[in-house]
Design brief:
alpha+beta; six-stranded antiparallel β-barrel; 3 helices; elongated
Length: 415
Amino acid sequence: MDRNIPKSEIRRRRLITTIKVGMAAVVVIGGIIMVLNTLQSSIKRSSITICTVDSGVIEASISAYGKVVPAFEEVINSPINTRIVEVYCRNGDSVDVGTPLLKLDLQSIENEYRNLQNEEKMKRYQMEQQVINTKTSLSDMAMQIKISEMKLNRLLVDYHNEQHLDSLGSGTADQVRQAEFAYTTARLELEQLKQRYETEQMVREADMKVKMLEMEIFLKKMEETRRTLEDARILSPHKAVLTYINTQVGARVAQGEQVATVSDLDHFKIESEIADRYAANVRLGGKVLVRINDKVFTGTVVQADPLSADGVNRFVVQPDEVRKGQMRSGQKADIYVVQTMNENAVRIKNASFYAGPGEYDLFVEEEKDRLVKRKVNLGECDFDHVEVLEGLRPGDRVVVSDMSLYKKQPELKIR
């Protein structure tokens, strides 16, 4: 026969069960805390990068960025409003100087040039005609002057004869006055004729200068048209690679519209940008280190824009002795503008932890299995190294990988 369990027994059993569960929970939580503490204060050796502090050359530099572009690139524009008739080349073709790229419809400008050539001939005939007319007119006037001089000489003889006859009593004073008047009148007419000749000479010379100036202006216009016609025959101006060409036969192109681009893809330059606060450190002729992928090249600043735009200053770097195939147009480049060189600097490996000169908390391996945090003062950097100013000595082994997860730990064990 079943009996009812006393309430006191039930309470006792519940209490024992509660105590057991509580003790088990404490043991589990304590175990977890111990494991977490162990994990937080230790790290796997395979998950960190340790380098040895050494001494050597540091080329202190300021970082910038750039883009590889052809050393030479020329855009070819249409000099006239026309349309494309034929296309002779395609993108990527290698072309020599004078290679035809495409043909434009040149009928209108060719007609204009032929009309100008005819007009030039007409103007030259007109100038020759004017020269002949001037020569004839001045020759006639010169002949009139000679005739007037002869007439004046004859009147002077008559005047002297009348004076002589009057002195002998054979002439009269009235005849002397008439002879004198005729001579004076002829002399004045001769002077007037000479003056007219000189004036006509100057007028004709001035008129010829005007004609010559008009001809000079016309020839310049004609030369400009000839040059436009020559430019409209779209030819390659250099030995290069055709990187763009309008291949739409029949398409209308406006004056000044791009129809082709040729580029020198064997030689390159790097168009670079640097924060404007560092612009004063970029100098013409200054040394530059260029990193493209894993390759490092030296270069020289050959052009620097003194004006800032959008918070950056632009400059151009000419790489030194780059072999064919080591650069391609469009590649991104890391640029380091070299400022100073320290040939005996204490240094560590340049890694992702470095964000510029200043004080860092770095873990140093003081024993085989123990890392201790240490205050380290770092200076400038180059591609591969960072200068150590204080806190480390050659031979020290320091962690250079990202340790931000352990920034609150004073030391770590290496597992």
